Amino acid sequence: MSANSKSSAYRSPLGRARGLGSAKSGVSRFIGERVTSVALIFLVIWGVWSALTLARGGYDGAVQWIGSPVNAVLLLLLAIVGFYHMQVGMTVIVEDYIGKPTTKALLLIANAFACWGGMALTIVCVLKVALIGGGS
Amino acid sequence: MAMSIFTRVTGGALYAGIFLLAGWALALVSGRETYDLYMGVLGSLLGKLVMFGFTVSVFLHLAGGLRHLIWDLGKGYAKGEASASAWAAMVFAVVASVAVWVIAAMTGAL
C-alpha cells in the first residue's frame, strides 16, 4: 500500500488516488475560503476605517472619496472578495444543517443568486459614481 | 467551543451586513436625497444599534477566522491554547468595537 510505489502502471486508478485527498471540488473551495479570509483581514480593517471617514463627509464627501482610484479599487475588492466569501461560507452552513436534497439545492441556488447579484449591483454602482461622478 | 459557533453566527450576521454595503452603493448612485435618507436611517438610534452589532460581528469573525487560519497551519492545539485564544478573540472583538466607536464619536462620525 506504499504511496511511493514506482510500479504505478500496475495499480488501479483507485489505488493511485487513495490517500491523496479529495478528487472533487472541495479542495478549491477550501483554498478559496482561506485566500479570501486572508485578503479580507486587510480589506475589512480598511473598510471599517473608511466607514468612519464616509460617516463624516455626507454625499459630497462620499462622491469625492469614491473618485479616488485607490478607494474605488479597494471598495470593489472588498465587495468582490466579500460576496464570494459569503457565498462559500453560506454554502458550508447550508450543507451542514440542511439534509433534504430539494431544500438544500434551492437554498444553494438562492445563495448564489443573492451573492452574485449583490456583487454585480455593488460593482456597477461603485464604478458609475467612481468614473462618472455624482448627481446634483 | 462557544467561540467556534460565534464565528459561524457572526458570519451569518455579516452576510446580511454586506448587503448594507450594496445598499450604500445603490443609495450613492441614486443621488443626494436617497443617500441622505440611507445615511439618516443608519444614523438613527436603531441604525446605530445595528451598526454597532455589525462592528462587533466584523471583529469577532475576524478574530475567529484568524484562529482557524492558525489552526490550519497546525499550530495552537496545545492544552489550554484553544481556550486562551477563544478568550483573546472575544476580548479583542469587544475592545476593538468600543475603540472604533469611541474614535467615531471623537471625530464626529456619529
How are the SSEs ordered, and which strands pair?
The complex is a heterodimer of chains A (136) and B (110).
Chain A: H1 13-17, H2 26-66, H3 69-97, H4 101-132
Chain B: H1 2-30, H2 32-43, H3 45-72, H4 81-106
Task: Tell me briefly what this model is.
The complex is a heterodimer of chains A (136) and B (110). With 136 residues, chain A is an all-alpha fold.
Task: Provide structural commentary.
The complex is a heterodimer of chains A (136) and B (110). Chain A is mostly helical. Chain A is built from 4 helices and no strands. The longest helix of chain A is centred in the middle third of the chain and has 41 residues, at 26-66. Chain B has 110 residues and is mostly helical. Chain B is 86% helix and 0% strand. Chain B has helices spanning 2-30, 32-43, 45-72, 81-106. In chain B, helix 1 crosses helix 3 and helix 2 packs across helix 3. The radius of gyration of chain B is 17 Å and the shape is elongated. The mean pLDDT of chain B is 94. The A-B interface holds A 34, 37-38, 40-41, 44-45, 48, 52-53, 55-56, 58-59, 62-63, 66, 78-79, 82-83, 86, 89-90, 93, 118, 121-122, 124-126, 128-129, 134-136 and B 8, 11-12, 14-15, 18-19, 21-22, 25-26, 28-29, 31-32, 35-36, 39, 43, 55, 58, 62, 65-66, 68-69, 72, 100, 103-104, 107-110.
Features:
heterodimer, A: 136 residues, mainly alpha, 79% helix, 0% strand, elongated, B: 110 residues, 4 helices
